[in-house]
Write a structure and sequence with these properties.
2 copies of one chain form a homodimer.
Chain A lengths: L3 E2 L11 E8 L3 E8 L8 E10 L2 H8 L10 E2 L5 E7 L11 E4 L10 E5 L3 E4 L5 H5 L4 H11 L8 E4 L5 H12 L3 E6 L5 H11 L3 E4 L8 H7 L5 E4 L4 H7 L7 E4 L8 E3 L1 H7 L2 E4 L2 H7 L4 H16 L8 E5 L3 H8 L7 E5 L1
Parallel strand pairs in A: 1-3, 10-11, 10-13, 11-12, 13-14, 14-16, 17-18
Antiparallel strand pairs in A: 2-3, 2-5, 4-6, 4-8, 4-18, 6-7, 7-9
Helix pairs in contact in A: 3-4
Main location (chains A, B): mitochondrion
InterPro entries (chains A, B): ADH-like_C (IPR013149), ADH-like_N (IPR013154), ER (IPR020843), GroES-like_sf (IPR011032), Mito_Enoyl-ACP_Reductase (IPR051034), NAD(P)-bd_dom_sf (IPR036291)
EC number (chains A, B): 1.3.1.104
Chain lengths: ~350, ~350
């Protein structure tokens, strides 16, 4: 990772609220800095941020390798939850005490306080667990949309996914379980595999297999009890994805939403012609942009997800909470391989 | 090619009509044989075959590498045109003198006469050129469906395709031209390139480029006068396909219908996630199977194509006609690289 972390940067430091900024000067760096909290405008909301996770997309944005980038220097962080402290006179739907999450990427959530336009926030119930709220707006939404928008799945149908231990993967397992859809979950082999299998099964996974298993005749055993998947969710790329695709039903869809292996998706021509598989992509940020004027879709999704949380059917992924001042260790920890625990900054 | 051609095979030869049979005994072989013409059944049609092309799929079926295979030994050939000689008492829509083409793959068209069930035949106007009729049921239908079924294209929109010189490619150029859609046509570099460019432009191609051009900044020039394509048609695979995909509009569709390079389709993960490209496949045989009870779609397509032929907007590809007895030379010629001319057996 080309990411240097430094504690502070020259320039006037205002006696106000700390934030994790980043910029290129002279290398990519992240620093903790006091930022002035601006005056509350007519339609603005003054928010005390409570918790914000460190996601791979945050790191990529800091590295400058993501598809959307902020003008630098910027406050980092795309996800998180805050409590409303005060609202401007034109704010209609939010009141002090409400919990809010970002409506879109790029808000800059790694800070203790901020003033945001009302339109950039979504309300969530304040009785759900803090870590659920802090991690709700990217991964569970991605999982929800991928399960809903590409194939019309009915209870009893199955879904296959790789990177099943990722934040999205865990949300897929839980949302699928709550709706009666079976999941075949592919993970990389690792020293503590049995523990991981147990953890994913506890979340509701029907089958947990390693990438090697995808090539083996034992796969047939799985399809004696459940139908072949009509939907495959791909966050890896490379050989493992090609192997996963072989198990998709004819006319089924594979949705790519990540590329952890940093390798392209490779598909035999025959899969397109003779099995009519359909390959699509998904990016939550684009979905939100495309549905900017369709508040109903957004709020219906958030309502469903919050209800799943309230019923105990959707929990936060395994998290390690870290005080803001320990951000350096958290950033380093978030980029380690086989990290099963998401770093969440407490603000 | 693992294809042996022999002149005849032992066994009883009935004094009837010649056909090109094939089987595995002991190697894959094709032989000319007299076959008895069966008695005309209630719903049968006695057909004098007139002409039948040699398509790559025919060769693959003979080689046993195609997705549908006939029980061996079989009569080869999937496409062609014949004239009705006689009809059974239960035949309603066909009369002697009518021209017919196969409704589906696997009919066995490389023969002089045959008795077919009425349901296995489609009528075409008998005033269209023989070679058009003989080559109508696979390539022009494939081109028509791919232009119609994946993106709703309007006049002024553009399509990019590789293997633009193939039978399908030439039909795409002509059908697109007739409907006001611009085409960007990718061909392999070759000694007689200027002649090929001229020929495709005469068919209506807007741009003809080599595979190398796809990587060059000069591509930008093309997109000053026409919009980026919303549809890409892929018959190649490998690097050239990945390069073609780069020029597709966001949310555009690439349809794979062949794999001439014998290499898979390789797509960067970012194309799925950040450009939302959609990858599909098409196989005319499957479409016909899926629409077996939807005669209206089939006849509406055939009507449109025949009208284009009658108006001079859709011609046969470059063909070399060969008498049936010279089938060996025709089979060999059909598997040569850079063949710009389709071998058609005259029956």
């Amino acid at each position: 990772m080309v990411l240097k972390v430094c504690s502070s940067l020259g320039g006037s430091v205002l006696p106000s609220q700390p934030a994790l900024g980043y910029g290129h000067s002279p290398w990519i760096s992240v620093w903790l800095k006091e930022l002035e909290v601006p005056r509350l405008g007519h339609s603005d909301v003054h928010v005390k941020m409570l918790a914000a996770p460190i996601n791979p997309a945050d790191i990529n944005m800091i590295q400058g390798t993501y598809a959307i980038l902020a003008p630098l220097p910027a406050v980092a962080g795309n996800e998180g939850v805050g409590r409303v402290l005060e609202v401007g006179p034109g704010v209609t739907a939010l009141r002090p005490g409400d919990w809010v999450i970002p409506a879109d990427a790029g808000l800059g959530t790694w800070r203790t306080q901020a003033v945001f336009p009302e339109a950039s926030l979504l309300q969530v119930p304040s009785d759900i667990p803090l870590l659920c709220a802090a991690t709700l707006s990217v991964n569970p939404c991605t999982a929800y949309r991928m399960l809903a928008d590409f194939e019309s799945l009915a209870p009893g149908d199955s879904v296959i996914q790789n990177a099943a231990n990722s934040g999205v993967g865990q949300a897929v397992i839980q949302i699928a379980k709550a709706t009666g859809i079976r999941t075949i979950n592919v993970v990389r082999d690792r020293p503590d595999l049995p523990k991981l299998v147990e953890r994913l099964k506890a979340l509701g996974a029907d089958h947990v297999i390693t990438e090697d298993m995808l090539r083996k005749p034992e796969m047939k055993e799985i399809f004696k009890s459940i139908p072949k998947p009509r939907l495959a969710l791909n966050c890896v790329g490379g050989k493992s994805t090609t192997e996963m695709l072989r198990h998709l039903q004819p006319k089924g869809t594979m949705v790519t939403y990540g590329g952890m292996a940093k390798q392209p998706v490779t598909v035999p021509v025959s899969a397109f012609i003779f099995r009519d598989v359909r390959l699509r992509g998904f990016w939550m940020t684009q979905w939100k942009k495309d549905h900017a004027h369709d508040k109903e879709s957004l709020s219906s999704m958030m309502d469903t997800l919050c209800q799943l949380v309230q019923r105990g059917q959707l929990g936060a992924p395994a998290c390690t909470t870290v005080p803001l001042e320990d951000f350096k260790e958290a950033l380093v920890a978030s980029t380690q391989p086989f990290t099963s625990s998401k770093q969440v900054l407490l603000l």
